[in-house]
Amino acid sequence: MLTLGRAVIGLILVVASLAIAPAATPQAKPSVRIGYIPTDSFAAVCLLGDRHLPAAGVSVEMVRLAGGPEILSQVATGQLQVGAAGMGAAGFNAIASGLPVEFVAPQHAGYLADYFTVRKASWGKEIKRIGDLKGKAIALNIRGAAVEWMMEEALKTDGLTLKDVQVKIMPFPDMVPALESGAVEAGIVSEPFPTLAEERGIAVRPLSRPADAKATPITALFWNKEWAAKNPELAQTVMTAYLKAARDLALDNGWKQPRNIEVMVKYTGAKAEVIQKARAHVLDPNLETDPAVLESMQKLAAEMGYLKYKDLLPVGKIFNFTYRDRAVREAGRK
Amino acid sequence: MSGAALPVLLLAAWEIAARTAVVSPRYFPPPTVIAATLSRLLTAGEFWGDALTTLSRLAGAFLVAALAGVPLGLAMGLWRPLRRALEPAVAMLYPLPKIALLPLFLILLGVGEGAFVFTAAVTAFFQILTSTAGGTATIDPRLVEAGRNYGARGVTLFRKVILPAALPAVLTGLRLGLGLALITVIAVEFVAAKSGLGHLVFRYWQMLLTGEMYAAFLLIGLMGLGATRGLRAVQRRALGWQEEIGWR
Amino acid sequence: MSRPVRRWRLDLVPLILPALVLVAWEIASATGLLRAVFFPRPSTIARLLLAQVADGTLLAHLGLTVARLTAAFVLAAVPGVAVGLAMGMSRRTREGLDPLFALLYPIPSVLFLPLVSFALRQEEVAVAVTAAFTSFFLVVYTTMTGVQQLDRTVLEAARHFGAHGRRFFLTVLLPATLPAIFTGLRLGLGYTLIVVVAVEMVSAQRGLGALLWLSWQILKVEEMYVALVTVAVLGAVLTGAVEWLRRRLIPWAQDIAEVGA
Hints:
The complex is a heterotrimer.
Chain A: H1 2-19, E1 31-36, H2 43-55, E2 59-64, H3 68-76, E3 82-86, H4 89-96, E4 101-110, H5 112-115, E5 116-119, E6 137-140, H6 146-156, E7 166-169, H7 172-181, E8 186-188, H8 193-199, E9 203-204, E10 216-224, H9 225-230, H10 232-250, H11 258-268, H12 272-277, H13 291-303, H14 315-318, H15 322-331
Helix pairs in contact in A: 2-10, 2-11, 7-8, 10-15
Chain B: H1 5-19, H2 31-43, H3 48-78, H4 80-93, H5 98-109, H6 113-137, H7 141-149, H8 154-192, H9 197-206, H10 210-238
Chain C: H1 7-31, H2 42-54, H3 57-89, H4 91-104, H5 113-120, H6 123-148, H7 152-160, H8 165-203, H9 208-217, H10 221-249, H11 256-259
């Protein structure tokens, strides 16, 4: 019986996986296990694992996980070598706790104007400006990460802080019915959900991008420090491949190119048309990121009580840019 | 009034409410639309692979839970010291949502089928254990005494008297455990897997395709229904002597 | 067959297993066998737990979870017992509803939450309804099988002696089903706690589940364990309370283990 056979296999797998320790057995072909979350903001990591690393002769296993802390913990314990996650308290705490992870490059950034979404029914009426959000319910998908920082910065422009609003935490898709029903008035919503909400006529994105605006770094690439130290050539190969992946997206309207969208569809299951219509994420073709913003994020996390430590970490302790710098040097700046 | 009328009435009410937009058809699509979506997706070949994956995870989890839970439950029901020793631990571990422990299981077991099956197995295990132990502990003592009076001892007493008397509780525990195992498998697939019906539900929700999502729910429900029917058939065979009570 | 075991020794037994596990864990975590960042020492967790109890934050979360648990449990148990009894007594009701329930039971109710929230608007009501969902079916099923497994001869004898309708129900059927109902309520309560915590993990801003999830999201792992321990203790206390109630209300349900095997 098929199910019985599978059940036996399941049983064997349970026993076997209990017996297996995180392995670092040398193999003929270098291999890397990469952790990701199925959302198109992880496009760079998906292109890395699906296109450029295999092209460089490295065998890749893409492992889906539920969220940032899962990926961080898997990389920290060496079961994955590479991963990406939101920049925020989890990453700061991980490094401060002495876990062997180091952030090595940004993965995606965003503009507030693309994320800040307000109920269409309220905009222009009860909510004419950011200051009107006082006491209202705002949706965030997580605390201690870039979206919270973005919201705080937005509120500050009109004299408010996070303490003046009612934050409701929910996953991005849940924000759409929440905006529709009025459970929240506004939110920091990631594509494709603001576009979907706009299409349904239930929400708007009223802010426009100022001319000198810089995108907020939201997620970043990291890897296991010990693995990189033991395999510097492989780590550099990963970084070089990652730079290529980033440039696939950052140049020539890469976020909208069908061949890249194809990969996004493969890993997220989203529809190609939806990704096409949504506003593009942002990634610098030289993998640059603003350290001042990172410091500001750490400060906010400390103020909110999210950090396990008192003395703020210098950015140099969080990010190791040597691999990125070498890759950009060798490939030439764009 | 026939009991079957109630579900039909509920479905009809839902259909009407959705069609007339009393409830939002976007978030509560009419049952007819759901059924049509399911049949469309099934004939298009979707769902089958994921359904099979979920089924195999379910089978693995259920088997592990049953093989561990039934013997331990019987032992706990029969032997007071063991029960006292384990009861506090069980009472404290049972209420932890195993999905909350999933990240820790993933660290210990690594990401993969093992961790998924283990998480679901643990949930079902506690259920099966509790039901079996409870049922064994409350067997009518007169039965046991009667058995003894007829000369049954030890293994024979166990096989001929205790086990059959405990069987209804064991089977209740198995049926509940099966349902809980499926619930947990779906929840685990939703958050952490790349395949399975739970993962499909996640994908559809990420695209806000509620029709397809409900179709997946329906299929999950049918899978559960089928599994419990199967267990019920086993129950009927095993408890042949017990007549069902029907008052009307 | 079993020798009478001394009273005091019996009382210590439940402590042995957890104590051994805690000691082993403390050592493993302190020596680095278990990575302390993800598996902190029980002593650290205990200290943090006490600190959070002292400053009131933990109790605030606990209170919220208990309130939601109560609401959800009542929502599950009252209709659950009623429907379970009905299904146990009437074949037609059972055959009508059982397939519907078996169809709905395997769906993790947490996945419904955004839809239920949309429909019900009131967040706490949505939480209670979602958490009550699976427990309702648990209580129905255990109550129903409780009725079905009653010793038919006893019931027929009662009928023979003139007990009918309501009198039969109140003086014969209900008392006979009480042990099964209690088992069902105990299971339902336990499972309601699980789902309330799970729902809080997805949606709430306060409550033990929210504390659990948020701590994990910022990798403040010790706090996550504090929440886990609190949930575990809460569950154990609730189970104990139901058991105590059971012994008070239905003392006649004897324990076979007391008779000896």
